[in-house]
Design brief:
- The protein contains 3 helices and 30 strands.
- The chain is mostly beta strands.
- The chain folds into 3 domains: 95 residues, Sandwich (Immunoglobulin-like), CATH 2.60.40; 74 residues, Sandwich (Immunoglobulin-like); 175 residues, Sandwich (Jelly Rolls).
- Strands 16, 17, 19, 23, 24, 26, 29 and 30 form an 8-stranded antiparallel β-sheet that branches.
- Strand 13 and strand 14 form a beta hairpin.
Length: 375
């Protein structure tokens, strides 16, 4: 079995004021000296996960020297190291063995990048912030504001899904994308039901979701690939006009934030379509506090539970999203959902449960007004 050496260059910092170790570095393939993007770096018993970026760079935090870190890359056997072991070295070589092809549970492919642009089929204008990904491998990305994308591809038979709000979804095999890297999406016409909000009797403003008076425990995105999402289920018992949405940030590291707001139908743990029919983008300086989104232009009247999420759609100069965390509050049950990247499935976040903590909800909430019965 072929042995693959990875050079992991670590720059280790002393404890910060909040009692955390900050570890950053790069992962390279020794044979080719190429960086290994999307190498997963996971701490099973903690809240902090990381993934290397396109340049093989990573950065993550750990609050305990006893934490175990798992380094894994597609097609190779994972290897474990404790934070204490990493702190004892200034430079470390991790030897990973290629996975046995006899093991059907392990997929071993040689991955390559492909880049291109996504356009409107009618106007030929670039489409910004399009989701593109391979669902079964949880590999994905988001096009930039000029429709440019760059994604890691694998087997020629893998299916890639391309989707954007306001356009018909498109499916291509890797082989088809390699033959033509320029993608054209057809506009999707939605029949919008006209709603006369002013003609309806509205009750007092109500808060839907969780909001903390004091700061609670923090939680971040589960992955560092563009298109990852984090959200919380919001219970809506009566027909309600949604006025605004709020998201509380506990930590921020960088110059600016760029998120997309998504609101999905949610019924019996099944996540349905996005209620929003156009992109709702948050662009703001990256700082602690509450992000506010005005929803009144969309005239949303909802009478069922929804999943309110934030989607990370743009990297801040290669810094990733590891410095961004959100506030949480005690709940009756865990209702935090996460998506690892574009086109990946949603899963319940179990980080707090693994740590033996009480069940938590994200501090994401709506302000709305119930629709009163007309008499």
């Amino acid at each position: 079995m072929k042995n693959i050496l990875l050079f992991l260059f670590l720059f280790l910092f002393s404890l910060t004021s909040v009692g955390q170790f900050i570890i950053e570095g790069h992962v390279f393939d020794e044979d080719t000296l190429e960086p290994l993007p999307f190498t997963e770096i996971r701490i099973p018993n903690g809240l902090e996960n990381a993934t290397t970026n396109f340049d093989g760079y990573f950065k993550f935090n750990s609050s305990s020297a006893n934490d175990t870190v798992i380094f894994s890359y597609l097609g190779y056997n994972a290897q474990k190291k404790t934070i204490e072991e990493l702190l004892s070295l200034n430079k470390i070589q991790i030897q990973l063995k290629s996975a046995s092809l006899k093991d059907p549970s392990i997929i071993s492919y040689r991955m390559e990048f492909i880049e291109g642009n996504i356009y409107d089929a009618k106007t030929n204008e670039p489409i910004p912030y399009v989701n593109i990904g391979i669902p079964k491998l949880a590999i994905g990305t988001v096009s930039d504001d000029q429709g440019f994308y760059k994604i890691k591809l694998t087997n020629n038979k893998d299916t890639i899904i391309i989707s954007s709000i306001g356009y018909h979804q498109q499916k291509l095999t890797v082989r088809e994308l390699l033959q033509n890297k320029y993608i054209y999406l057809e506009q999707q016409i939605h029949k919008i039901k006209e709603i006369e909000i002013l003609s309806k009797r509205l009750g007092k403003e109500i808060l839907l979701g969780k909001k903390n008076k004091n700061r609670g425990l923090s939680i971040g995105f589960a992955n560092r690939q563009l298109g990852c999402e984090i959200g919380s289920v919001i219970k809506i018992k009566k027909e309600t006009f949604l006025k605004s949405a709020y998201f509380k940030i506990n930590h921020a590291d960088g110059d600016s934030l760029l998120f997309r707001v998504n609101i999905y139908h949610f019924e019996k743990k099944n996540i349905g379509e996005n209620i929003l029919k156009e992109n709702v983008i948050i662009y703001a300086p990256q700082k602690r506090g509450i992000l506010t989104v005005d929803l009144t232009p969309f005239e949303l009247i909802i009478n069922q539970d929804v999943l309110l999420t934030l989607e990370w759609i743009k990297d801040d100069n290669g810094k990733g999203n590891n410095g961004i965390t959100f506030d949480t509050k005690k709940g009756r049950k865990s209702n935090i959902y996460e998506k690892r990247t574009s086109q990946a499935p949603f899963k319940i976040n179990k980080a707090f449960g693994r740590m033996g903590l009480k069940k938590k909800s994200l501090c994401f909430w709506f302000i709305g007004k119930e629709i009163l019965n007309s008499k």
